[in-house]
Design brief:
There is one protein chain. This protein has ten helices and 15 strands. The protein is α/β, with parallel strands linked by helices. The strands form three sheets. Strands 3, 4, 5, 6, 7, 14 and 15 form a seven-stranded mixed β-sheet that branches. A six-stranded parallel β-sheet has the order 10-9-8-11-12-13, with helices on both faces. It starts with a strand and ends with a strand. It binds NADP nicotinamide-adenine-dinucleotide phosphate.
């Protein structure tokens, strides 16, 4: 089968389109024929050796892909064969992927393979930050950094669904328009304007209740400065570099909270994970959440997808397609 592998840590050029054996089945696994693969910023970090988990070379990136179950191991439910699913797993830049049953999300007929590959990592991350790690509600204000990105656009929509006021940040006027269309009340171009004083101005000097910060090093101090009393900074990434350490003493005067979020923690608590999947699928099926596919490329062009993502040229979701 065709797959994407990298044999060394490096830039997008290390991604190779290769022929390999299909992954080996095990009694507790199913084999899924893939049609659409979701690209995430984490895939670029894995390739650069900068992700939380280190790659085992040669490695295949990819945490999510949608397709049809074509084989089911003896210890799994044999009725899964023929079902449309999305896998939230690993090594998904490939024509076939093996997964355990707990890594599968069954797809309602209404949801296409493209929509399916576009939601698991990004939508569930946005959901669990806003509805598990904290709780948005009317009267609260949320600051969403990199708001035109995959997680960002979904977080804007989900915070609005919860009744919150949303301020987004992004790097260009073109992206700002997309963030506004997703429902943000205000958008700040954070590479042109010092965003913390602008947030203070937009909130009558009060600040925001929640900051979703995936940018890290470049935004951390401004994010803390943007918080209202009892505000909560959720750090969930470092697109600009790992955030600096925080001196807890600086949090006292406004009784601030700082927390970290990693989606894979959610899978350790199945009841919470299932609540997230149910809610997100319901929002997508009913049209309350729009999945913006910003770029679709064939699997063999994975390197180009990474290049554009790291150059900040993408909006919404990037997909890799398999014939
Ligand atoms: N903790 C978790 O479980 C979890 C899960 C999913 C994603 N994440 C993190 O959330 C972030 C968003 O992920 P995503 O897949 O949705 O990607 P994305 O937001 O579509 O792409 C990354 C965005 O980050 C912004 N950015 C700021 N500084 C950057 C820099 N120096 N280099 C590159 N980009 C920069 C860019 O937006 P602007 O041009 O608007 O600045 C860029 O478009 C990533 O940091 C990712 O690692 C974490």
């Amino acid at each position: 089968m065709k797959t994407i592998r990298f044999h060394e840590i490096g830039g997008p050029e290390v991604l190779r389109y290769e022929d390999v054996e299909r992954p080996r089945m095990a009694p507790n696994k199913v084999l899924v024929r893939i049609h659409a693969i979701g690209v995430n910023f984490a895939d670029t970090l894995l390739r650069r050796g900068a992700y939380l988990a280190q790659p085992k070379l040669p490695e295949t990136p990819g945490f999510e892909a949608a397709g049809v179950v074509v084989e089911a191991g003896d210890e799994t439910d044999r009725n899964l064969v023929g079902q449309r699913v999305v896998v939230l797993g690993e090594r998904c830049y490939a024509e076939y992927v093996t997964a355990s049953q707990s890594q599968l999300i069954g797809l309602p007929d209404k949801i296409s393979f493209e929509e399916a590959a576009a939601f698991p990592v990004q939508a569930l991350t946005a959901y669990h930050m806003l509805y598990t790690a904290d709780r948005v509600s009317p009267g609260r204000t949320v600051l969403v950094h990199a708001a035109a990105g995959g997680v960002g656009l979904l977080a804007v929509q989900m915070a609005k669904l919860g009744g919150a006021r949303v301020i987004g940040t992004t790097s260009s006027a073109e992206k700002a328009k997309i963030v506004e269309e997703a429902g943000a009340d205000d958008v700040i171009l954070y590479n042109q304007t010092d965003f913390a004083p602008k947030v203070a101005q937009l909130t009558n000097q009060r600040g925001v209740d929640i900051v979703l910060d995936s940018v890290g090093k470049a935004t951390l101090h401004g994010s803390l400065a943007s918080l209202a009393p009892f505000g909560h900074l959720i750090s969930y990434g470092g697109a600009s570099g790992r955030p600096d350490p925080i001196d807890v003493g600086t949090l006292y005067s406004r009784s601030l909270k700082v927390s970290a979020f990693w989606l894979f923690t959610v899978s350790r608590t199945p009841a919470i994970a299932q609540r997230g999947v149910r809610q997100v699928l319901e929002w997508i099926s009913s049209g309350k959440i729009h999945l913006r596919i910003g770029l679709k490329l064939p699997l063999e062009q994975a390197a180009e997808a990474h290049r554009r993502m790291e150059a900040r040229q993408t909006t919404g979701k990037i997909l890799l397609m398999v014939e």
